[in-house]
């Protein structure tokens, strides 16, 4: 509905000019699907906008045809993120405490390192590039993607077990700096890994 998009563009009164400009620019690239969701062409550069939520557009994004970057905001979770990202998803050094609302599929890399995560619940099920959740306070790999076609980086966390690790990692499985020291044999028990 073009009317909804035009209304949402007008609703931005009183917000920062930069946020208003970003909203209008993204909504101008949105196309409505039959199910009421929207596809957005191109990338979404949401860095340093002071966002507290990714649902600031007022629409549900099904497909984003390229990447999203949201560093430098005040996000605690990923509610409002596109369901499918056909590029990279950058949300590192953010203060995230939950991956709730994360895309279910990311064709590129999924970067959530240096946040305040204690769990990977809500992670995408498939990541076509690297998955980096290092430098958090993660205690379990439960909720990890099923498959990572690049590297799986979970170092510098509080892991004592590899249970819940991705079933398939086509790149390296990087795990140093955790509460427990894991061997390559430990990794092979839980994951079909491409490189050690």
What does this structure look like?
The chain is an alpha/beta fold and 196 residues long. It has a single domain, classed as Leucine-rich repeat, LRR (right-handed beta-alpha superhelix). The chain contains three helices and 15 strands. The protein has a 15-stranded mixed beta sheet that branches. The longest helix is centred in the N-terminal third of the chain and has 11 residues, at 17-27.
- Mind describing the biggest β-sheet? 15 strands, mixed
Q: Would you tell me the overall average pLDDT?
A: 93
Q: If helices are DSSP runs of H or I spanning 4 or more residues, what is the number of helices? A: 3
User: Radius of gyration in whole Å, from Cα?
Assistant: 18 Å
Q: How large a portion of the residues is in β-strands, by DSSP E? A: 15-25%
């Amino acid at each position: 509905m073009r009317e909804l998009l035009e209304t949402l563009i007008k609703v931005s009164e009183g917000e920062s000019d930069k946020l208003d400009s970003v909203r209008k620019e993204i909504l101008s690239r949105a196309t409505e699907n039959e199910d009421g969701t929207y596809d957005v062409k191109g990338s979404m550069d949401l860095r340093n906008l002071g966002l507290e939520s990714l649902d600031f557009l007022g629409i549900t994004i099904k497909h984003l045809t390229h990447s999203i970057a949201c560093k430098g905001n005040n996000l605690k979770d990923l509610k409002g993120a596109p369901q499918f990202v056909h590029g990279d998803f950058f949300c590192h050094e953010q203060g995230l405490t939950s991956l709730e609302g994360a895309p279910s599929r990311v064709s590129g890399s999924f970067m959530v390192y240096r946040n305040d995560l204690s769990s990977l619940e809500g992670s995408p099920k498939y990541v076509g590039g690297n998955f980096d959740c290092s430098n958090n306070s993660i205690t379990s790999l439960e909720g990890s993607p099923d498959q990572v076609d690049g590297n799986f980086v979970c170092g510098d966390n509080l892991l004592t077990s590899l249970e819940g690790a991705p079933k398939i990692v086509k790149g390296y499985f990087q795990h140093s700096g955790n509460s427990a020291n894991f061997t390559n044999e430990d990794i092979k028990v839980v994951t079909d890994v491409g490189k050690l």
